[in-house]
What does this fold into?
Amino acid sequence: MKEESRRDNNSLKLIRKQKRGQESVPILKSISLDTGEFPYFSYPLLEQTGMVKHCFTTRQGGKSQGIFASLNLSFTRGDEREAVEENFRRVSQVLDTRYDDFVFTDQTHTTNVRRVGKEDAGKGLVKERGYSDVDGLITNEPGLVLSTFYADCVPLYFADVKNRAIGLSHSGWRGTVDRMGRVTLEAMRREFGTNPENVVCAIGPSICQDCYEVGEDVAEKFIQEFPSYKQEILIEKETGKYQLDLWRANEIILLEAGIKKEHLSVTDVCTCCNPKVLFSHRASQGRRGNLGAFLSIKF
It folds into this structure.
């Protein structure tokens, strides 16, 4: 690295969505690597635990070219493998971890959550996963880097400060309507004795309500699951379509699952509103790479 200091990054023009009197989160930071400047997002609430390392990447600071420029973290969208591998090396420098400490999900919009340990280090990156259909990961092993991937869906971070356990889950509309946040907390309770009152959570950058139009079939599923919150999470349009608020829906899920309001940070950064800074499936009409969410327990 050229420089160990991490600082707020104001060089990227970022559109933020106004929230109910809350301060802007996550914070866009930057670190200078030997390869150049590397911007990433960080949540102060998670940092304050003193227990975890975490970040959410932008599309800046990598080696990929073309529609994948420049920090694509997907091996399956047509990018050069060498470029993606280099991108992960840079993420490992930002997190100050080993390249083979990452462990990947296998995201198929389920609510399957898997406990991973030391034997899973490197799965998805340097060795085969050996499992499929996993959208959430939990662990109490220090140093293991939980890794999930995005281009509009919702990242959910969990840090149990009492039992020193963590979780990281991918929640699109299917995961949200099936309450992935609650499912992850239930898995952490079974495996680690987690009490939601001791968990710090963050809802990561993802598509906002203004950008997320869904059909009546999807809207009806949310009305059935969240009958008391229809007005908060859905706006009906004259066309018969709806605007869906995944941020608020996941906030409701986590609060109802027992997370304290003061232990929860909700994003104000939309992937679709910021296509020059973040990959968005909707904004790019599918011509894009993947962003990454990462979380590990400090030694």
Remarks:
- The chain is about 20% helix and 25% strand.
- Helices lie at 44-47, 81-95, 173-177, 180-192, 216-225, 230-233, 246-256, 281-284.
